[in-house]
Each structure stands twice: as structure tokens, then as C-alpha cells.
Amino acid sequence: MVPYDLNTTLFTDYAVKHRYVWMPPGTAAIYNSSDTFAFPKGAILIKTFGYPDAAIAGKLRLIETRLLVKGEGGWFTLPYIWNRAQTDAVLDTHASPVDVNWRRPEGGKYAINYIIPNADQCRQCHDRNKITGPLGPSARHLNRNFDYANGTANQLAYWAKIGYLKGAPDPALAPRQAVWNDPSTGSVEQRARAYLDVNCAHCHRAGGDANDSGLYLSDRETNPSRLGFFKVPVERDKIPAGLSYDIVPGRPDLSILAYRMASEHPELRMPDLGRTIAHKEAVALVRRWIAERSEVSDRRSQ
To answer: What is the 3-state secondary structure (H, E, C) of the chain?
Structure first.
């Protein structure tokens, strides 16, 4: 297996994640500059979730390992759940939640009921036009360095070198997404848009599960209304009075997007799958982006 990472990653209640890819010998993914790579039959994408284990310094308590496997008829999901002894993981397509306690290095002690998505919920995020597929392995997400066992290398170049990727250009010519929490990689807007792209756009896109909302949060979306600026939401259930638009430029306190990102209520929080607690650092970034967009506050300019 080949380990990899993404420029900006999906938030899952602060879980630590390890990603790997495996492809049958002699096969390779086909490069695409704007979409997920085309993987060969038999390819497996692996993602393990865990939390720091207070009982074992420097170790993770592994919770689940999700496999996305390319079969004859397309991609299918296989969730494996780790036992408490950390000796084995068993396939369970409808696993029960797991109680997790941990302390973040930055401070703060957490206790959550970690919800393991079932196979249908996996497809809710991974389906586009009812076809299941991977989300992360694309040029703009993978175009970064990784510390491999034999040295640091750009992931696109490394995949090409070992025969895992065909048709890739020099990494300098490939798109690269900003790292949401690294100011050296992009502006506030670029980093906020990258975060929304990874955490929200798998549903909020054409053909996604939230396609009917009209709110498209891809980092390549250019229409202000589809991004949420002065856009009236399709559903307003339980939204407080006074919040009328998904985004009000210059006013994060009046923006439904920021409100739902900060909410931990099961019927209000967004994303509604994959988290139970708010990602406070990301909420602060998105609020700052909205606050800095005061230059488009005139509704008539839309």
C-alpha cells in the first residue's frame, strides 16, 4: 500500500486519519486535472480513523477502517470496526456508535459518541448522480509533499514514478488546493473555499445529495448566488428568525452557513454526517471570510 494525504481534509470530530492506496500490479490511475482520477478495476482506497490513546503515549486508538473498492460494477464500500484490544477489525455495515475520550494537543478534553456511518450513509457522500466513487484523490488535493519512508517527495510525482499514475504533468503545472489552516498556502478566501469544497461540496454540487438546495460549495464555483450570497435557503426548519440568507456579505452573524457550521444540533448542523461537534477553528475561518466579503454587500450587484 502507498500512504497519501490531502491538502485540505474532511473534518470528522478531530479524528486522526491515515490514508492508503493499493492497485493491482501493472495497473495505474489515469490523471485528470479537474476531477477524481480514473482508477483501474481492483483498486482499493483505505482510510483509518483513530484518536490519541491516553493509555499508550504516542499511539492511536483505532476506531474504523473504511475501504472503497473498485469492482466489476463500480465502487463499493466496506467499513471495518476495530476491537478494543486493537488486534483485529471486523466488517460491519451497520456498526454501533463508539464512546471515545481524548485530549487534543492544542488543549481541550473531549468525550463523544463516535458515529460510524453505515454503507448507505457512505454512499450519501460518495455518490454523484447515483454513482459511487472516490472524493479525495484528484490533482488539486494530492499536489503536495509527503514524507515517505525513503524520503520526501511530491505525491503526484511519486505516484507517477512508481507506476501508480499515468498522464500526470510536472506538479508545478498541476492545480493545487490551499491548506485550510496554513496561511502560507493561500488567502483567507482560498482557504475557506478549500474547506467548504472538501467538507460540503461532495453533497452541495450538481448531482450531489444536496443538489436540490441550489447551494453549490465547490472551490471552483463562480456564481455568487449559488455560493450562498443573499441566497434564500430551500428549507428553513428551526432556523432562528433574523437569519434569512445562506451568506450575508460582511455579516457572519446573519449568515445561515456560519450558523449551521457552528451548530451541534443533529437537525441543524452541517455537515449532518461525519461530525457531532463543531470544528471551531474552521468556523472561525469561514466567519472571517464572510466578514471580509463586505465589498459585495449591495444586493443589487448580484
So the answer is: CEEECCCCCCCCCCCEEEEEEECCCCCCEECCCCCECECCCCCEEEEEEEEECCCCCCCEEEEEEEEEEEECCEEEEEEEEECCCCCCEEECCCCCCEEEEEECCCCCEEEEEECCCCHHHHHHHHEECCEECCCCCEHHHHCCEEEECCEEEEHHHHHHHCCCEECCCCHHHCCCCCCCCCHHHCCHHHHHHHHHHHHCCCCCCCCCCCHHHCCCCCCCCCCHHHHCECCCCCCCCCCCCCCCECECCCCHHHEHHHHHHHCCCCCCCCCCCCCCCCCHHHHHHHHHHHHHCHHHCCHHHC
**C-alpha cell, 183:** 496561511
Taking the whole predicted model, whether its pTM rises above 0.85 is answered as yes
Whole-angstrom distance, CA of residue 64 vs CA of residue 84: 11
Residue 280 phi, psi dihedral angles, 5° rounding: -60, -35
Q: Model confidence over 194-215: pLDDT tens digits? A: 999 999 998 898 888 888 899 9
Cβ neighbours of residue 254 closer than 8 Å, sequence gap 6 or more:
242, 243, 244, 245, 248
- Cell readout for 281 is 477553528
Residues 126/202, Cβ–Cβ less than 8 Å: yes
pLDDT average per 10 residues of sequence, the chain (302 residues): 96 94 97 95 96 72 94 91 93 89 75 82 69 86 96 98 97 97 97 96 86 91 94 86 94 96 92 88 97 64 41
